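Predict the structure of DUF4283 domain-containing protein.
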Amino acid sequence: MANFWHTLRGVQVSDLGDKHYLFKYFHKMDIERVENGAPWTFNNHLLILYQLK
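Done. Here is the predicted structure for DUF4283 domain-containing protein.
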């Protein structure tokens, strides 16, 4: 997914277990691009995005 989004400053993906992943973006424009392009799927599974405060 990280390569598909073509981020400006990259994204770091961490496996949190139990089918949960943390996507860490390094530029606000990257976050906005991903959020505005939703809904996203991977291998026919819906990705549910939530922005941590």
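Residues 1-53 form one domain.
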